[in-house]
Design brief:
Elements lengths: L13 E11 L30 E2 L1 H15 L8 E5 L6 E4 L7 H6 L4 E4 L5 E4 L7 E3 L2 E2 L7 H6 L6 E8 L6 E8 L5 E10 L7 H13 L14 E12 H6 L4 E7 L1 H5 L2 H10 L1
Antiparallel strand pairs: 1-11, 1-12, 2-8, 3-4, 5-6, 7-11, 9-10, 12-13
Helix pairs in contact: 1-4
Length: about 280
């Protein structure tokens, strides 16, 4: 439980740097939108960088972690949700509260201004707080697409999965195709948690909980149909205190070559580092 109050003062204590790899256990589809469809291509292409290489946007990974943590902590109920968008067919609802000890809002930030509650009424966003968590775009590790994989992919970096939707009255099949990054592909991930007060020592544990939840859930589209199973591997966690930036002090390595279970075992050490800073 967070010990934050409305009087908690924010001043940089240090930063936690988390780096490693996200491994695709099944094909991964992060959609690029219909505007990027190519002639003869898949109906649902994946997002690619300027070099034509698939990547995972930081906003996608961050948003999925947030949604899973909202569900896990009981924050995804109407009384705890507000509208980001009310456009018909494109409604966006997220958790936000005005409680100073709300760990979801502390880790992911809190929008200022008045917002409409899903359960009715308005939320006066006077208690704006900065996001502690930054999630960077995750580029594809090209070497993870092996020559053998490329041979079966016709020298491409992605695969095309064909699916059928069956009309329940006529039994007519309506084929569709989904572009995916193949199983076995790896992406380099980097996340930074800003620790702005001693009370923030509980937030890294919340992030690790989100990573573990994601490993037993899905990322991207087609999750209920077999896509989007990922795991995190070869994780390195480092602490850079304020003196790292002010005077060039050395960083402190907390974990190396770890999985998410290994990170969870280091949560107590993180709290000790923050308390000693």
């Amino acid at each position: 439980m967070s010990a934050h109050t409305a009087q908690t003062e924010l001043k940089l204590v240090g930063k936690l740097i988390l780096e490693g790899e996200m491994v695709c256990e099944s094909g991964l589809h992060i959609g690029a939108g219909k505007g990027s469809m190519e002639i003869g291509g898949a109906d649902n292409p994946v997002v690619k960088d300027s070099h034509g290489r698939p990547y995972v946007p930081g906003s996608t990974l961050r948003g999925r972690l947030r949604s899973l943590l909202e569900q896990a902590t009981g924050a995804a109920i109407p009384s705890e949700l507000v509208y980001l968008s009310k456009r018909k067919g494109q409604e966006v609802r997220i958790h936000q509260s005005d409680r100073p000890d709300d760990e979801i809002c502390l880790l992911f930030g809190r929008n200022p201004g008045r917002m409409e509650k899903v359960g009715g009424g308005d939320l006066d966003g006077n208690l704006a707080t900065p996001s502690r968590l930054s999630v960077f775009d995750a580029p594809l590790v090209l070497e993870s697409i092996t020559p053998q994989m490329r041979e079966s992919l016709d020298d491409e970096l992605t695969e095309v999965k064909s699916e059928n939707a069956i009309d329940r009255i006529t039994a007519q099949a309506n084929p569709r195709t989904l572009e995916r990054v193949p199983a076995g592909a790896r992406f380099k991930v980097r996340m930074v948690v800003d620790v702005l007060c001693p009370e923030d020592s509980v937030l890294p544990g919340l992030l690790v909980q989100g990573l573990r939840l994601l490993e037993d859930d899905t990322l991207g589209g087609g999750g209920s149909r077999g896509s989007g199973h990922v795991r995190f591997a070869d994780l390195k966690l480092s602490w850079r205190g304020r003196d790292y930036y002010a005077s060039g002090a050395a960083e402190r390595e907390i974990a190396s070559g770890a999985d998410t279970a290994g990170l969870q075992g280091k949560i107590a050490e993180i709290g000790e580092l923050v308390a000693a800073a």
